[in-house]
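Q: Focus on the chain.
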Amino acid sequence: MITPVQSLGPDRANQSGVSWAAIFAGAAGAAALSMILLLLGTGLGFAASSPWPDQGASAKTLAISTIVWLLVTQILASGLGGYLAGRLRVKWASLHADEVYFRDTSHGFLAWAVATLVTAALIASSVGGAASSVAQAGGQAAGAAVAAGGASVAGAATSGQGENGYFVDKLLRSADPAQANQTDAQGATSRILNKALAGDGQMNADDRAYLAQFVAQRTSLSQQEAEQKVDQVYAEARKAAEDAKVAAQQAADKAAKVAAYTALWTFVALLCGAFFASLAALFGGRQRDRAVWLDEPYAGTDREAVSVR
């Protein structure tokens, strides 16, 4: 016996149209499937990549594969969550079809939103735990470095290796560079080059002449040849510093582009997830409305499927 659809009374008409149980059920299913697919994608990505050059998938291939897999994950997981939210919600009787469609799509969207927030919270928690572990390890390493290198800090200050080492060298600079040993000469030379490279890129005449004296006394070159060698080596050092600066700028620009593309494609994937969750909820809701309650099961083995169109 099939019971007819009864009209809603005043109490039922004033109740909320949100079935939170169905929404949370759909969100749980979407979050679980999303996690499974993400783990599968991570495993496939590690299997396709290789630390050795010219082996495994290229960076471009991995990037495209990651984008495609992110879209597939969002579509499948959000579609499942939306379908469950639409299929498991309560049946709304005596409502206009437009209102039913709106509620179904809203349930799918809410299931997608809850699943997205839960997944984001889990990811943030994982990243926060990893960052805390790294910070703790860094603090322990810093403490060990301070304990082990306390004496070396004082030694560096007295030997002119501190922040003002260049000016200390200049203050104690001797007219006869031969009096400096090899270690002191190398330290003074390094600080002079670093000071010139850190400034406007030009070495002043006094430093140039002093370095040339170092080179002349240790390489048996004339003063003029030593100055030419200083100019040549300093030009190479300046070029190397400029190349490193350009490489760092290119790396930063590439990283910024990667971050921008990642954010944009993540935005597109989330939009696709919201759309397919709403669409799947509409499909699941229509199937839910076709279901019929039976007062008693059919006897025997022959059972007839009943649907309401």
